[in-house]
Amino acid sequence: MNAFENITRYLEEGKSFVLEAGAGSGKTYTLIQTLDYLIQNYGDKIRRSNQKIACITYTNVAKKEIIDRIDNNNLVLVSTIHEFMWTSIKQYQKQLKLELCKLNEINHANDISKGKAESRYIANLAERIDAIEKVVYNDTSFNDFENGILQHDDVIEIAKSMYENYTLLTDIIAERFPYIFVDEYQDTANDTIFSLIECLLKRNTNSIILGFYGDSHQKIYDYGVGDLVKYYISNGGEIELVKKEENYRSSKAVVGLLNNFRKNINQIPQRKVEGSSRFIYWKKHPEKPKKDIRKFNEETSIVKNALYDKMVDKLKSEGWVFNGVSEDKILVLANRRVAQRAGFGNLFEIFSNRFGLATKERLLDRTHPLITFFVGTIDKKTSQERKTGLEHLLDYWVANNQNEVIRFIKKKGTALSGEFKHIDKKRIYELIDTISRMRTSDSVKDLLEITRANGIIYDKRLDEFITKTNLSEELVPEEEKETHAKNKILLDSFLSLPYSEILTFWKHIQNYTVFSTKHGTKGDEYRNVLAVIDDTEWPSEYNFKDFFNDSDKIEERKLRTRNLFYVECSRAIDNLVVLCLSELDSTAITAIESWFGKENVYDIEGFIR
């Protein structure tokens, strides 16, 4: 039986299941098939019972896709995980207020244990909780317990506590939703999996069916559960395993590679194209000296850049096209070299000088207020784009979506509220048009000033950072002087940048260039893929050398590296080339040759001749 036939069998038998679906297997199509099957065969019964099918997606993009593909059938509640968890608990305001007080104390204890300031703690909240009219969920990464406002992390934590402690709640949910399906289960938070399986399913095994759709090898967010192996019935759990082994995306060569290093699924290529998968590595690494390490690294970096350029030229000679709009892509962990080539090298350098290895978090993950003001951020728990930056607003403007422009400013700015609420919308439009045209000619400072001065965007975190950083040195406490000085250099350097670097950075993180980042690749596919790996970038997170020779003692990093390698390789439709600039030992090369085939593994110096 194929995967869908197995799923329908388990639905008829009343059994929960997990669909382990490899890359390119058509997982979403199978999820839609499942929903259609239930609608056609049990729709009337579900509707008469005043019940619904719940389909939980990982992103709003996936949510919209599923709603469209089931023709917006109101028998199915399609929602993100935060929306679903909040919907299931929001009516229980008395319990929510109690949980809010508990979470306030938990956060306080965590802050103390980590040596953080106590700014998150609301003193005597329990005594004043009745003054809060209603606990509400604010779909952002910021909360305000004093006014009863939760952010998305809070919803997951409070839902877990309520699911765990209120049996009646889980009984009500099971009665309301006899079928609950979770898309991209591998990136779903452990707390959510605990709520759904340990609390909801185990108490209501005979009245509810859970279905999890995803791929354990495509987990790319650290907080995700990864796999559900411990819950398999074969391991004494509650969930049947269904494997989906077709690969409709990739050529025979690419699928063969994936099968060679992946052990829990053996995919069957559905395309007749042979394609190719090649591994190119730098064999003659110079020996690392005991002294002058910095000089050695700089010289090595120059050689790596030259080898990379020659590699790209070689592939171009084979007919590959790297122009940002073609079907060929370079997949790489963002670093100084990529930033320079993509056109935001100065921006990267400024953040690297200030934060070192933390540049990834502050700049590339968009957590620093200087960055979020202009390009928003990515929600760490959902991978959703938080459309709060100036570039999001200007995207609406360029698309002539004036309704979204006004909605954005009302939500994020002050230009259409309070004393400014009667400002002519025509003036707003003229202002935004001016800002849009300034992007290619003016400085970051110019755009920041005009945007803030006219109330287009108000960002409390940015205001606080600028105010604190611009304090006179004599007003700064002695223990903060060093940090203050570094932040001052960061701010001044950032403001002096041409805004075109922010614009280029924006295009890069939105995958509008020839380069694509690891988070940007998931779910995408490209005709030809050049995957560039180098262990000198983010060594605490990824170690390809030790992954290849199976010697990494840090299990979390090993899995993170494995999953990134799998995601990058599985994007290729026809041809894949992996360029490894890390130093590899003989054990690693032996493993690589067993995966790619010895005839497909090359020393770069011989390959580019």
Question: What does the model show?
Answer:
This protein is α/β, with parallel strands linked by helices and 609 residues long. It folds into four domains: 3-80 and 168-246, 3-Layer(aba) Sandwich (Rossmann fold), CATH 3.40.50.300; 89-161, no CATH class; 252-333 and 517-607, Rossmann fold, CATH 3.40.50; 344-509, no CATH class. It contains 27 helices and 18 strands. The strands form five sheets. Strands 3-2-6-7-1-8 form a six-stranded parallel β-sheet, sandwiched between helices. It has a six-stranded parallel β-sheet with strand order 15-12-16-17-11-18. A two-stranded parallel ribbon has the order 4-5. β6, α9 (190-203) and β7 form a beta-alpha-beta unit. α4 (81-89) packs across α7 (152-165), α5 (93-113) packs across α7 and α12 packs antiparallel against α13. It starts with a helix and ends with a helix. The mean pLDDT is 91.
Topology of helices and strands:
Elements (H helix, E strand, L loop, with lengths): L2 H11 L2 E6 L5 H22 L4 E5 L2 H10 L6 E5 H9 L3 H21 L11 H4 L7 E2 L11 E2 L1 H14 L1 H10 L2 E5 L6 H14 L5 E6 L24 E6 L1 E2 L4 H10 L6 E2 L6 E6 L11 H25 L10 E5 L3 H7 L2 H11 L3 H6 L4 H7 L1 E2 L6 E2 L3 H9 L3 H11 L12 H14 L5 H10 L6 H10 L11 H16 L2 H11 L5 E2 L1 H4 L4 E8 L10 H5 L6 H15 L2 E9 L5 H11 L4 E3 H4 L2
Helix pairs in contact: 1-2, 4-7, 5-7, 7-9, 8-9, 12-13, 13-21, 16-17
Label this structure with key terms.
Rossmann fold, 609 residues, alpha/beta, 4 domains, 27 helices, six-stranded parallel β-sheet
